[in-house]
């Protein structure tokens, strides 16, 4: 799925991790796994992609995407982590041309 590839490429550059590792079907170290989880979360929550499709795009199954989304939601209780996630969400929304400004009118 092209959207997931775009998210993976963006996250690889943003967090300075290997895109190859993010795409790897095998287990990776926690920092890489966490970035992948964030990508799955962003794809589902921000872009509204079905979890099964996110799983396909990230080379994982739906249950892994469910786990990733729950994990990121739990980690968002940390204010600093939440700020990073919110920033990434805004950047992805802009990159994918989503309307991110509340009350914005297209003229």
UniProtKB/TrEMBL annotation:
<protein>
    <submittedName>
        <fullName>Chromosomal replication initiator DnaA</fullName>
    </submittedName>
</protein>
<dbReference type="Pfam" id="PF08299">
    <property type="entry name" value="Bac_DnaA_C"/>
</dbReference>
<feature type="domain" description="Chromosomal replication initiator DnaA C-terminal">
    <location>
        <begin position="3"/>
        <end position="72"/>
    </location>
</feature>
<dbReference type="GO" id="GO:0005524">
    <property type="term" value="F:ATP binding"/>
</dbReference>
<dbReference type="GO" id="GO:0006270">
    <property type="term" value="P:DNA replication initiation"/>
</dbReference>
<dbReference type="InterPro" id="IPR010921">
    <property type="entry name" value="Trp_repressor/repl_initiator"/>
</dbReference>
<dbReference type="GO" id="GO:0043565">
    <property type="term" value="F:sequence-specific DNA binding"/>
</dbReference>
<dbReference type="InterPro" id="IPR013159">
    <property type="entry name" value="DnaA_C"/>
</dbReference>
<dbReference type="GO" id="GO:0006275">
    <property type="term" value="P:regulation of DNA replication"/>
</dbReference>
